Amino acid sequence: MSAAESYELTLADGRLLEAHFQANFRSSYPEAGRQGWSLSRSRIPDIVFVLRGEGACSFLVLDAKYRRYRENVLEAMESAHIYHDSLRVDLQRADFCALLLPAAPDLPHLERDAFLIEHGVGTFSHFAPGGQGVKRCVDFLTAWINGFGRNHPHAAS
Predict the structure, then answer these.
(1) How would you write 41-106 as a 3-class SS string?
(2) Structural domain of residue 77, as residue ranges?
(3) In 31, 46, 49, 60, which residue has its Cα 20 to 30 A from 5's Cα atom?
(4) Non-local CB neighbours of 148 within 8 Å, separated by 6+ positions
(5) Structural domain contains residue 157
(6) Any idea what the Cα angle at residue 92 is, between residues 57 and 133, rounded to 5°?
(7) Cβ atoms 52, 18 nearer than 8 A
(8) Is the pLDDT of residue 50 over 70?
């Protein structure tokens, strides 16, 4: 997949973790030779993490939004739903799509890990240097890498 920047890290167990910034998911189908593609129009999410190993692939999307108030966050959630439903890596659907918000939203239910796990979309607020959202996001990503992502109801099968 093409991206503004991409990085790879081989984990201790041999799996490969990829980080793609501004990845380009063009409207295509996998026969076109693309690993990242969109069921609908072209999409460019901010951050995509892909985990590959043992012939399997899982991925998640993080998208930064500078919003806080109810209507603005709900409007921004449209992109989370679109990314979650339309993006594919190989033939897999995203495990999760979360918005990164600079402050606490007026919609605290979107913040709960249980909500993100159940629905595949949600938010990480206070996502700024030194903010508690950075730690929460890192903890969630670590749990996903350590097998959580492959075992929950929204994981790619």
Answers:
(1) CCECCCEEEEEEECCEEEEEEEEECCCCCHHHHHHHHHHHHHHHHHEEECCEECCEEEEECCCCCC
(2) 5-151
(3) 31
(4) none
(5) no
(6) 75
(7) yes
(8) yes
